Amino acid sequence: MAQELCNTLAASYPEQSAIAKLPYLPDCTSFEPLFDLMDEQEYDTDPDLFYKNENWFIFPHGEHCLFVSSSGISIEVHIYDYRWIDAGFFNNFVKSISQATSHPYSELAQKLITAIAPADFQSFCALLKYLSAQGKLLQHDAVNFSLA
Hints:
Shape: globular
Helix content: 40-55%
Oligomer: single chain
Radius of gyration: 16 Å
Structural class: alpha+beta
Low-confidence stretches: 17-22
Distance between the termini: 18 Å
Largest sheet: 4 strands, antiparallel
Strand order of the largest sheet: 1-2-3-4
Number of strands: 7
């Protein structure tokens, strides 16, 4: 979803010619140039992105961008590499999905939260470290992971 949101943002950017020349397009691992362009041109983040039948608001900050849907789902992305999974960001994502009752994964998210109770940062960090030890994720530092 993070990659798709960033791709949707890139496609909706007013300067398509500038986007087409960005270095992240060949492998789609970094959206940093897109956010640099937005900063330089003072891109107005008020207009929504439309993705998966919902409006999404964009909140770029530092090396991250928070996308929030009209139903309350929050996805925070590392703009240098959207594939990184931050334990805190994942915690917020799962909690937001669990509260979005119309989302197809709402029930699954609720079960995960119940299974790892308390569903806090430490629990999600422990879950991601466990998945890393099982070879399912790669651990980059204390809180950042990616798919193996």
